[in-house]
Amino acid sequence: MSLTQIKTETGDFVNEAVLELINENPITITPLHDLLIKMNTVDIAEVFESLDKEKTIQVFRLLPKSLAADVFSYIVPRTQQVIVEALTDGEVGKIINELYMDDAVDFIEEMPANVVERVLKNIYDDKRQLINQLLQYPEDSAGSIMTTEYIALREDASVREAFDTIRATGVNKETIYTCFVIRRDRLLVGVISAKTLLLSKPQDRIGDIMDARLILAHTTDDQENIADLFRKYDLLSLPVVDKEQRLVGIVTVDDIVKVIGEEFGEDIEKMAALNPSYEPYLDSKIFRLAGNRIVWLMVLMLSATLTGYIISSFEESLAVMPALVAFIPMLMGTGGNAGSQASTLIIRGIALGEIQPRDIVRVIWREVRIGLICGTALGLVNFIRVYITNSQDAMLSLAVTLSLIVTVILAKSVGCLLPLAARKLGIDPALLAAPLISTLIDCTSLLVYFTIARMILQI
Amino acid sequence: MSLTQIKTETGDFVNEAVLELINENPITITPLHDLLIKMNTVDIAEVFESLDKEKTIQVFRLLPKSLAADVFSYIVPRTQQVIVEALTDGEVGKIINELYMDDAVDFIEEMPANVVERVLKNIYDDKRQLINQLLQYPEDSAGSIMTTEYIALREDASVREAFDTIRATGVNKETIYTCFVIRRDRLLVGVISAKTLLLSKPQDRIGDIMDARLILAHTTDDQENIADLFRKYDLLSLPVVDKEQRLVGIVTVDDIVKVIGEEFGEDIEKMAALNPSYEPYLDSKIFRLAGNRIVWLMVLMLSATLTGYIISSFEESLAVMPALVAFIPMLMGTGGNAGSQASTLIIRGIALGEIQPRDIVRVIWREVRIGLICGTALGLVNFIRVYITNSQDAMLSLAVTLSLIVTVILAKSVGCLLPLAARKLGIDPALLAAPLISTLIDCTSLLVYFTIARMILQI
Fold it and tell me: For A195-213, what is each residue's pLDDT tens digit?
């Protein structure tokens, strides 16, 4: 029980004990080493986040060789660079040679050119060739997130031979729980789970018990589609093939768990009019953060010029009844909120595959009715509020309330229509939502308001 | 290769062939049966989504017994109910008895009371007891998403005995890739992966080769925290224990892939001022959709009353210079966008664990600088635009531009401050963001605008 006692679910408790040992000067090696090897790899990697350069190198060199590469793969790029720059050429080569191929590629992608050059110079030829090949796949493609360490079995092997293969090579493979069945030329013909292997007889032939219902990806497929396949089919791993259906790599579920977080984060950021970024907030440079925001702010600011023109063109009406101005923010705000509620649900529905462009009529009809319900409820409350606070001016209250109801219905319609139209045109619905929808709804609500006010109040 | 040929990655092609066979009247059983058993379980379940009641029952009865429960677990609740209502008591019992415990609980939670009663009456006593127990865990807790089908090994068993256990019971377990090592009273003492078992000698003792560095959850832990553990430690499954650290269930990665999608979706919806919902959009009732939206719309509309008061209290200034009105939407809009950019990034950072409440000073300092950069750039463009379009009125342009810069900086500060404050107070940052931030920023930008305009334009 000693280990479960020092290991809490979050690792916080252990981290404190480790940091105490590390902060001693000089470090007493043996107790620190003993504690480190009892810790989870991910937790060890986390320890480095709070160390300075000198301690980072000292502690990293203390890790047993068998652990070093694994810990390295979980360390943040900034610290990876510090470590690589301090190690000898030979040490660097050893670490990188031991990384899984996807981790090696992730690492190389984050390093500056001089570090990349030094790393590539010190690793095995075949590893270097593979890395160079993987680096060429487009960002966010299956090829860029796949790894090349998988277990391949021959169709005519027996279960006993399969286990021999797994025992002989399994320790260096990222997953052994799904094995891939290939023919000559690495042609992928089936998959077989370790579960099936364990529950089969030793003399069974792989080709007879494998699953030939292949779910696979091509190297250029987008990672978002890959994530959809994992979500839909409850996969642990997915084979990636080239154009000739030759097996070139696999994607594993742990990477997909991270991709799903990234993709949703991207959607959230686009909807908030931000350029998506992948760096942790506190690690990003101020100018980069500002840069990610400024383009959309500028576009939206300039498109708001339109609202200014609309207001100016109704200046005479406003001069007759200045009280109208006070309701502009409420109307535009409510329209904006009603619209973004609709667009958010539709964008999410599209992302989850629940809504297709062909559902457009059904969706609009739903949103019009929802707009009518919401608008009427809001209008009722609004009428009473305006009536009481504006010297019981029934006509003014009516004008504001009617504008509100029409605005909500129109906002709901625009909010659902634009993402679906974007999808149909092949544009990312999330990207379009923020700027176009808000500008459209702002202009609509102003036009509706002034038109209705003019008619009812005869100004 | 016949199977890979009829199976595309999305299954669309197969679906068409199956639907063609199903739509024949009467159905010719043999070819349909032969096609179905070659399809992926998830794809078969999807076929039911486009069938009417009668065909649903016909096709479901056609599935081989060994496949029926598995397919059933992937069918949407609406169709599950149709099927259960058409089957005999005995058939219902057989299906539900074969479901994994977490799928059975998910199903029961979605059914109306009369169906639940009938189902519980027709299943095994021990299954019914377990279901009743699992139904009592709070929504979204580890207990509510865990399953009870896992492989437990004794500490003093050998690897050979472990494989015997797996072979004897593995087929009914949701995962065999992580086995859980227990002592008397089901006390959890370690985990061991199938990979370790495969790479060990048959006579090795489980207790000596198991991993005692336990990463575990308690039954009442929130699913969001569970997802964080999977993401952080690259887990395939996670043991769930009660207060006495006795193993009561496991959570598997396929459920977590879904949880992550849900949790992000929830955050997106909250930020768009929606009550989170879990139903697919097109399946939801109009009144429920309207209900999810109306509360926030009402709150936001009423809080917008404040902006009305602010405008009214500056009515005299507006009477002197009506042109000021035209810039209100642009200023409020830009403030709102700048603020929601900041709050979105902070809420995401908090959700991913990148930002802690203790980082508050750093975060504000960053946002103030970002606000200054963005505000200045926007201000410059805005000054030129206003100067040109408003008869070269330099003072008016200056007033609008200065207001813009101050508004952007304040909006960025409010946008980062509130989510962090919410987190500190234990309130969900995403929930707070939409209403409070937008109201605060609207009022701030109006106050800033009128105050600056009064000073510069001397009105």
Answer: 999 889 999 999 999 998 8
Tokens of A9: 């679910």
State the Cα–Cα distance between residues B122 and B140, nearest whole angstrom: 27
In whole angstroms, what is the distance from residue B380 CA to residue B219 CA? Answer: 56
Question: Strand order in B217-218's β-sheet?
Answer: B217-218, B237-241, B247-252
- How is residue A252 annotated by DSSP? E
Chain A residues 325-364 with a CB less than 8 Å from chain B: 325-330, 332-334, 337-338, 340-341, 343-346, 348-349, 352, 354-355, 359, 362-363
Q: What ipTM is given for this predicted complex?
A: 0.74
Query: What token pair was written down for A407?
Result: 């605005």
Dihedral sign for Cα atoms in the order B56, B61, B64, B69: positive
Q: Do A363 and B268 count as a contact with CB atoms less than 8 A apart?
A: no
| Nearest alpha-carbon partner for A182 in A230, A236, A248, A131 | A248
CA–CA distances in Å: residue B382 to residues A86, A305, B372: 50, 10, 15
The half-sphere exposure of A459 on its side-chain side, counting CA atoms within 13 A, is 21
Can you give the pLDDT at residue B84? 93
CA angle A194, A196, A202 (to 5 degrees): 95
pTM as predicted? 0.75
- CA distance readout (Å), B115 to B77, B82, B118, B158: 12, 10, 5, 46
Q: Which residues of A276-292 are buried (b: 16+ CB within 10 A; e: fewer)?
A: ebeeebeebeeeebbbb
* pLDDT surpasses 80 at B417: yes
Side-chain half-sphere CA neighbours of A407 within 13 A: 37
Q: A6, A12 in Cβ contact below 8 A? A: no
Residue of B167, B87, B156 whose CA lies nearest to B122 = B87
Residue A345 in contact with residue B274, Cβ under 8 Å?
Answer: yes
| B391 and A CB contact within 8 Å | no
| Cα(B110)–Cα(B95) distance, integer angstroms | 16
- A195 interfacial to chain B (CB closer than 8 Å): yes
Q: Are A415 and A439 within 8 A, CB to CB?
A: no
Q: Write out pLDDT tens, residues B376-396.
A: 999 999 999 999 888 888 899
**Which chain A residues touch B312 with a CB distance below 8 Å?**
323, 326
Alpha carbon of residue A31 to chain centroid: 40
Report the distance separating Cα B140 and Cα B148, nearest Å.
17
Which stretches within A304-437 are classed as H helix? 305-313, 315-320, 328-351, 360-389, 394-424, 429-432
CA triple B418-B420-B422, angle to 5 deg: 65
Q: Rounded to an integer, what distance in angstroms lies between the CA atom of residue B181 and that of residue B204?
A: 14
DSSP-derived secondary structure letter, B40: -
Token code pair at residue A319 = 């001069």
> What is the spatial distance between Cα B186 and Cα B230, in angstroms, rounded to a whole number?
23
Q: Whole-angstrom Cα distance, residue A75 to residue A19?
A: 16
For residues B282 and A359, the answer to whether their CB atoms sit within 8 Å is: yes
Indicate which of A199, A275, A321, A345 best probes the interface with B, i.e. most B CBs within 10 Å of its own CB.
A345
Amino acid at B116: V
Residues B214, A269: C-beta atoms closer than 8 Å: no
Look-up of token digits 């090795």? B204
- Find chain A residues with C-beta within 8 A of B39's C-beta: 213
| A337/B296 touch (CB, cutoff 8 Å), yes or no | yes
The burial of A38, by beta-carbon neighbours within 10 Å (0-12 exposed, 13-18 middle, 19 or more buried), is given as middle
Chain B residues within 8 A of A355 when measuring between CB atoms: 281-282
Give the Cα separation of B398 and B333 in Å (integer): 19
